[in-house]
Amino acid sequence: MLPSYCPSCKQPLKVRKLQCEACGTEVSGNYTLPVLTLLTPDEQEFILKFIKYSGSLKEMAGELHLSYPTVRNLLNDIIEKIKSYEQLL
Amino acid sequence: MNNYFNTLFNPFVRIAGYKAFLIGIVFLLLTAVVGNINQIYFPGILSTKSIPCLQLYHALIFQAIAVSVAVLIFYLLGLLFAKKVRFQDILGTVTLSRYPCLISAALGFLAQKDMAQLMEMLRSGNIAFTLSLRFWVFTLIAMLVCVWSLVLLYKAFKISTGLKQGVKLTWLFIAGVLLTEGISAVLIPLCLGGR
C-alpha cells in the first residue's frame, strides 16, 4: 500500500520523485497525492467495487452480504472523508 | 461466536428493508400467538403486560398498533432530521427489532399464576399476598428483553437514517420512543372500543 501520511508527524506526504524503470528517467518535483490514496485500503476497495457495479448500491449490498442502508452509510462516510481531504488540500 | 453475537444485537448491518420486514412479521405473529396462550401482551414498545381473559385479536391489535406507530414516528423523524431515509428500511428494521419479545411471550407462563392471584387480591381487597420467585424471574427477564428490544430499535433507527452516534441521535430516539408509547396508549383503547 502506498503510504500517504508521515509516520512521524502524521501530515499528508507529497511525491518528490518518480522514476521510469524502462529507461531510468527520473522526474522530480513536488506532487500532491491524489485524494483517493488518502483513503484506507478498505475504502479504496469499496470505491472500486462501487464503480465496477456501476454505482448500484443494491448490487453491492448483495455482493458484500450487507444491508442496503449499511452500504449507503459506508458510501456517505467516504464522501464526507473525501470532502474534508479536499478542503485540507 | 462474534458473528452470532453481532447478528443478535445488530442484525441490521446484514438485513434491512422488506426482507427484515417479512422476518419481523413472522416473529410478531409468533409472539402474539404464544403470548396469547401465556396471557402476555405488548401494548407499546416498552410495555409487557400479563392480562387474563384477552383474545388473540387483542394481541394482534396491540402488536400492529405499537409497531405501526413506531414505524411512522421514526420515519417522520428520519425525514425531518436525516439526509436520506427509505421507508422500507425503517419498516423492516423497526419491525425486526421486536423479535426478542418472543422470549417474554414464551416465558409468560411463569407469571400467570401470580397475576391471577394478584387480580383476585385486588378484587377482594385482601392485600396479604406474596409474589413468587417465578414471578420475579419473569419480571427480570421481561425487563432485559425490553432493554434488548430498545437497543435493537436504536440500532435500527441509526442504520436506517445514517445519523451519526451522538446527542442528536440520542434525543431523537428518546423522542421517538416517548411519542410511540404515548400515541399507542391512546390508540389501543380507541381500537378496542374503550376496553
Description:
The complex is a heterodimer of chains A (89) and B (195). Chain A contains three helices and two strands, in the order ββααα. In chain A, a hairpin with a 6-residue loop joins β1 (14-19) and β2 (26-32). Chain A has a domain at 34-88: Arc Repressor Mutant, subunit A, CATH 1.10.10. In chain A, α2 crosses α3. Chain A has helices at 41-52, 57-64, 68-88; strands at 14-19, 26-32. Chain A has a two-stranded antiparallel ribbon with strand order 1-2. The longest helix of chain A has 21 residues, at 68-88. With 89 residues, chain A is an alpha+beta fold. The two termini of chain A are 21 Å apart. Chain B has one domain. Chain B is 72% helix and 2% strand. Chain B is built from eight helices and two strands, in the order ααββαααααα. Chain B has helices spanning 2-9, 17-37, 56-81, 87-96, 101-106, 109-124, 133-161, 167-191; strands at 40-41, 49-50. In chain B, strands 1-2 form a two-stranded antiparallel sheet. The longest helix of chain B is centred in the last third of the chain and has 29 residues, at 133-161. In chain B, 39% of the residues are buried.
Quick overview:
The complex is a heterodimer of chains A (89) and B (195). Chain A has 89 residues and is α+β, with helices and mostly antiparallel strands.
Radius of gyration of chain B: 18 Å
Read across the widest sheet of chain A, the strand sequence of neighbours is 1-2
Residue stretches of chain B low in confidence (pLDDT < 50, at least 5 long) are: none
**Total strand segments of chain A:** 2
Shape of chain A: elongated
Largest β sheet strand count, sense and barrel closure of chain B = 2 strands, antiparallel
Q: Which CATH-level-2 architecture of the domain at 34-88 in chain A?
A: Orthogonal Bundle
Shape category of chain B: globular
- Indicate the multimeric state: heterodimer
